[in-house]
């Protein structure tokens, strides 16, 4: 069985996008803190953008360490990219774009092909292998 190398480009784009999303979440959290101070209003929603960015960075890192589950982590990255729009300003739009492209690359990357070996007298392998 042959194996493909980990999706380096997808992981790098996802981690960079996650950093931008975390920065956008940090800015939104700072604005929320100002609102809480001025208007005596507080909500844990302000931390969701920062959490979204951290989950995106972890998903990008796991694409490298567990390449067999890259489609799962690519899907998580794309979901985090969509969730970053309301919670982290989309990571200043750059984070959204990088994460969405990185997740799409990880998801669309073809699986490793299995090498079929035939033994003498076995004949041709079936067409579905």
Describe this structure in words.
The chain is 68% helix and 0% strand. It has one domain. It is an all-alpha fold and 129 residues long. Helix 1 (8-39) packs antiparallel against helix 2 and helix 3 (70-92) runs antiparallel to helix 4.
Distance between the termini: 12 Å
The biggest sheet amounts to: none
Q: Output the radius of gyration.
A: 20 Å
General shape: rod-shaped
Low-pLDDT windows of residues:
none
Domain module count? 1
Instruction: Tally the helices.
Output: 4
Instruction: Tell me the structural class.
Output: mainly alpha
User: Approximately how much helix is present in the residues?
Assistant: 55-70%
What are the SSEs and their pairings?
Elements: H1 8-39, H2 48-65, H3 70-92, H4 94-108
Helix pairs in contact: 1-2, 1-3, 1-4, 2-3, 3-4
Short description, anyone?
With 129 residues, the protein is mainly alpha-helical.
Features:
0% strand, 129 residues, 4 helices, rod-shaped
């Amino acid at each position: 069985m042959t194996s493909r190398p980990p999706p380096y480009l997808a992981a790098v784009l996802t981690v960079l996008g996650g950093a931008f999303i975390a920065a956008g979440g940090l800015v939104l959290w700072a604005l929320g803190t100002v609102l809480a101070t001025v208007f005596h209003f507080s909500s844990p929603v302000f931390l969701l953008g920062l959490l979204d960015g951290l989950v995106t960075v972890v998903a990008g890192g796991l694409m490298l360490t567990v390449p067999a589950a890259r489609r799962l982590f690519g899907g998580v990255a794309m979901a985090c990219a969509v969730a970053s729009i309301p919670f982290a300003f989309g990571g200043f739009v750059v984070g959204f774009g990088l994460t969405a492209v990185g997740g799409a690359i990880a998801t669309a990357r073809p699986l490793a092909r299995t090498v079929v070996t035939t033994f003498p007298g076995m004949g041709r392998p079936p067409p579905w292998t």
